[in-house]
Amino acid sequence: MAVELNELRDQIDAVDKQMVELLARRLALVEKVGEVKSQHGLPIYAPDREAAMLASRRAEAEKQGVPPQLIEDILRRTMRESYASEKDSGFKCLNPELRSVVIIGGNGQLGGLFGRMFKLSGYQVKVLGSKDWDSADELLKDAGLVVVTVPIHKTLGVIEKLNNLPEDCILCDLTSIKSKPLKAMMAVHKGPVVGLHPMFGPDVPSLAKQVIVHCDGRDKEQYQWLLKQFSIWGASLCNIDAEEHDHGMTLIQALRHFTSFAYGYHLSKVKPNLAQLLKLSSPIYRLELAMVGRLFGQDPNLYGDIILSSDENIEMIQRFQRSFGEAVSLIESRDKAGFVESFEQVSQWFGDYSQQFMTESQNLLKQANDSIHRPHSS
After folding, report:
1. Residue ranges of the Prephenate/arogenate dehydrogenase domain (predicted)?
2. Nearest-CA neighbor of 147 among 120, 170, 166?
């Protein structure tokens, strides 16, 4: 049996080696594709091409007796690597006549990411850090685009200082709240203004499929090239009114960050053995625990600023506290019928999204389970 098993494993190893060689060839071709896209100003992410290619490969896999989802998983992972390598080829510069891009807060992680992307696109980038305000007038006098990316609590104060920009300069910010910064930029600058919110952190390998929200301010025809530049980087654009954006962020960011904080805070009080919890965890709990733990590996000031950025956020958290209390009352009273009734009401509210989220989460959980290494226990 051992001889037979070893022979089969040797054959598998040989196939795996061929797969590695094929992946290397594919990545080399992708690099050439990136060069062509750069020359012609094409986005690194083409959703129609990706969807058509995946559908074709799934059909081919099925004919070969290979599970279609398997080839899709392999290709999606490969494409993620491809998008990251494509950006190294640089991007076409859509506005070569633009004067310098000044990033206020460009020494920070997010500012640094955008600075690199602008440089990869051939723009002249200057950084105005917290210690550079003595030379701010010199840095800003020939700016064609000024990007404000500083902590939320400093954003309005920084914007107020920008009252002497060239009139045709585009002024924008990357803050996670939009209404107040947009109004402040409109008040201080008479030229083009746009509010931006990148819905991702600075650790993304590429901007492919990442969302950038834009809230129109003034002279929007003057910054359309900027939005198209983001598209070339691979980003998906979402245009929304600033106040609507902030209402949405109350739930998407403030409330979710707070509930993660509260759960982690509670765990720190209960003090469970985390290593033991992980051993007992199903993939979904491990993923949930990882998302909570991830929060506490980052800057607390950032999350404090997000949660405390508006009265609306605090009011929503207070409403959540009341809803939580109502749910606790159901449990305290051992009211299973009431629990089931409330559960079904929520299920009806989610509607078809429940099944969609079930499918999406199953795929995520399979990937999460694949990445877990569980040693044999004695």
Report:
1. 99-361
2. 170
